[in-house]
Amino acid sequence: HTNGSDSASVRGAEVYYHREKPQDKPLADSILCGMREVIHALPGYESFPVRAESVAEGHGENRIGTMPSVIVETAYHSNPEDVAALQDPVFRSAAMKGVEKGYRLWATGKSCEPLTLAPIADVEIPTQSAREIELGYQGNPQYPVTIEFTSASCSKPGACTPTRTLFEDPTKPIRAELTCKGSSPGVARWSVVLRDADGVATPPVVFQHSCVQV
Question: In this structure, are residues 126 and 111 in contact, taking their beta carbons and an 8 Å threshold?
Answer without folding.
Answer: no
